[in-house]
Structures are given as structure tokens and as C-alpha cells.
Amino acid sequence: MIQKDQHIVRRARALNRGTRGSGPVVYWMERDQRLTDNWALLFARQEALIRDKPLHVIYCHTDDELDTTSGRKDFCLAGLSALRRQADSLRIGFEIFAGAADAILPPLLEVNDCHLLVTDYSPLRGKQQKCANIGKAISIPFFEVDAHNIIPCWTLSDKKEYAAYTLRPKVRRLLPEYLTDFPHLNSHPLAPASLDGRGQTALASGGKIRAETGCFISGTAQAHARMQTFIQEGLQRYQEERNDPTSRAQSDLSPYLHSGQLSPQRLALETDGAYCDPESKKAFLEELIVRRELADNFCTYEPRYDDVRGFPAWAQKTLDEHRRDKRRHLYSLEELEEAKTHEALWNCCQRDLMASHKLHGFLRMYWAKKILEWTASPETALHYANFLNDKYSLDGCDPNGYTGTAWSIGGVHDRAWQEREVFGKIRYMNERGCRRKFKVDDYIADRCGGE
């Protein structure tokens, strides 16, 4: 008899209990687009092994204009195409259907009398709404597995944390228990059954899909190669140079983490085992674990994560008190999108974001704070910043992005600073401060050819 691996089980929670069907176990893949190092797939496979069932992965692809503009659509489909070939070698079914999961899955699960449904966890309302809709429409068990966080979000904390310093002790307490290596994903003993797609459109594996978006090439193999390059060449310099966009000391792994082509837990394990400057290692793991899981915590327990009403009370108060302050410059969304401001650095940041589909983390804070300064209200600023980030960034439409703009514009996970016009007590950033951090003119010349 197969014994359940508690490292796998404890990362799952039941959304539906239901009655098991006689057909295959289905993993609805969405946030974590990889086969290895995937707790959700491992959970689904364990259930399939115990009950002697075939195993299928299903991805539901919807055409979204933001995904097309940002390059996320091609980045995703190119990665999924490679996963389908890998799944074949592991005797795991892999189907990609065109359409929304909550429209496709319920009839498909019913007609195939599927055994149970497993999905990966995302705190964003789109995924949570689809889970709720599917849960109401099916009668089989439905499990959600946090395959993205090292410590499952609901295990780490049961409330919205105020800041990193309130979450960090909880991470330190649980991390030794959860930062373990993954079980090996062996070939499944049962060949996948042929699924009746119930008239749904299955996406072919061929076609012209761009694997390269900006300076990023899609796929789990590319993600692991870039991870190793960073650990060998960039990690040593991370502590001293991470806020310098000209040094290229950041990992540039956020597109792979966002798409789930790279497991944060695998990255943490590889980083923890690296021989390098201990302060650099500590700083990187702080960002990778504490700050990233803090973002998921915020979006899990704050339903208004992309709304000014989700800002802390002190920030809402100070922004409201300065709502009528005179803005020296006001720009429309079109002017910002076309990089037509008076400030060369900001314009270069916007062009860099549009061309490379990623913006350096330090610059993204400056970029968002200037939007607050140059728009008529905090509500407008937050909307513009989220829209532009989601439209052009490969790591947009992500808890890190929404939490980052909320930090920059609304003081989320921050504290009150010296009061000034427009910003109130929100932390201030400007081009002069950037010039003290790094060689701004070199960045402009490199990314935008000068202005």
C-alpha cells in the first residue's frame, strides 16, 4: 500500500469533498507551469497512484489583450508546448484548451467521470472566482495546493500582516520544516486515457509561437539555466549592487517565477547551498521568501489589493489630506504610456519596460512614485501604474506587482515618512536620489540610447 507523503499532503486543502469518480485524476494547471518541482502535480500524482488512476494535466488558455501586449501569451504557450512533450515521456496526459476554466472543466470532468480535481493556488480574484464557480458546478473532490510559496500561504499566517517584520518570525519558525527538496517525479505507471473534450477546442502543439520575449526565452530549461548563471555570477554581488540597474546584479528571474516555470522553492534551495558572500545570500533569500510570500499574504487577505481602500489607514488619511495639493506636472495615461514626460529617467524606464518587458526593481519603485506625483489623485495613480505594469511586464498581473505599486503609492508594508506636498507621509523618491544610487546617464545611454 502506498503511504501518503506528508510533505505533499500538508500543502493541500480541500475546496470540495464530493464523491470520487471512476476516471482519471486531473490537475488544472494555471499559476505553476512546470512538471518537476511542483507540489500540486505531486499531490495529483500521489492520489492517482493510491487509487490506480491515469493522470492528466489540463491548462485552459484565454486570449487576454494584456497578455498579448506584454508577451505573456507567447511566453506561456511556448513553455507549455515544451511541457507537453515532457509529459508524454512521463506518461502524463497534457491538454491545452481554449477558453475559461470555469466554462471548460465542469462538463469535461463530468463526461469523463474524473476521480478528483487538483489545482495550484493563486490569491488573485480571477483564479479564486474560477475556483468558486467550478466548486459549485462539480460533485467530485476538489483540492487546492500551494505550489508557489515555500510555506503554504494559509499555513504561514491566517491574517493580513502589517509588514515584513511581522511575517519574518513566522517564516523563520516554519522554514526548516518546509524548505525541503522535492520528491522525484517518476513516470506514471498507467498510460493516460483519451479524454473526451466535450466539444472544447484543444490547442495544437505546433504553430508559430515566439519563445523569446524581450531578453527572456521561455521554458523551464531556460529558467534553470538563468538561475544557475545568477547563482554563479550575480549572487556574490547582490547585497552591494542590487539597487544599481547598470550592474546587472539582480537575478532577472521574476518572469520565470511569475509564470511558474521556476519554483521559488528550487531557487531557495540552490541559493541556500551556494558558496558566496553570506550577506548577499541573506539579502536575496529575504526578497525571495519573506517579501514574496508577504505579497501573497497581502493579496490573500486584502480583497482590495489593487484599490486605494486596501492601503493602511494612515496612508489613506495622509493622501486624502494632500489630495488637493498643486501638481507641478500632470500627465494623461497616453502621455505616460508613450514616455512623454519632462523627466528623461522616467521616460527611459517606461521605454525599457515596453522593450524588455521587465523593469529593474529599484526603478519600478521610482517609476510608480512619479506616477503618484504626476496624476490628479491616488486612485488615478494606482490605476495607471497597475495598468502599465500589467500591460507591458512579463511579471505583471502578479501579487508582487500589485503589492509593489501599493507599497510605492499607498505605503503598504511601509511606515510614515517626512511629510511633503502630494505624497503626504508616503515615502518619496526622485531622480536626484537615483543619481546618488547609480549612474543614471549610463542607464539612459544603455537602455534608451540617450535622450
What does this structure look like?
48% of the residues are buried. The protein has three domains: 6-147, Rossmann fold (3-Layer(aba) Sandwich); 149-182 and 220-301, Serine Threonine Protein Phosphatase 5, Tetratricopeptide repeat, CATH 1.25.40.80; 308-448, Orthogonal Bundle (DNA Cyclobutane Dipyrimidine Photolyase, subunit A, domain 3). The protein contains 21 helices and eight strands. The strands form two sheets. A six-stranded mixed β-sheet has the order 1-6-5-2-3-4, with helices on both faces. It has a two-stranded antiparallel ribbon with strand order 7-8. The chain is 50% helix and 8% strand. It is globular. The protein has 451 residues and is of the alpha/beta class. A hairpin with a 2-residue loop joins strand 7 (212-213) and strand 8 (216-217).
Question: Which fold name fills CATH's third level, the topology of the largest domain?
Answer: Rossmann fold
| Number of H- or I-type helical stretches | 21
Number of strands: 8
CATH class of the largest domain: Alpha Beta
The CA-CA distance between the termini, in Å, is 69 Å
Classified in CATH, the superfamily of the largest domain is HUPs
Low-confidence stretches: none
Overall mean pLDDT stands at 94
What profile does the largest beta sheet have? 6 strands, mixed
Structure class: alpha/beta
Question: What portion of residues belong to β-strands?
Answer: 5-15%
Instruction: Give helix and strand order, one letter per element, not per position.
Output: HEEHEHHEHEHEHHEEHHHHHHHHHHHHH
Choose one word for the global shape: globular
Radius of gyration (CA) equals 22 Å
The CATH architecture designation of the largest domain is 3-Layer(aba) Sandwich
Whole-number total of structural domains: 3
Fraction of residues in helix: 40-55%
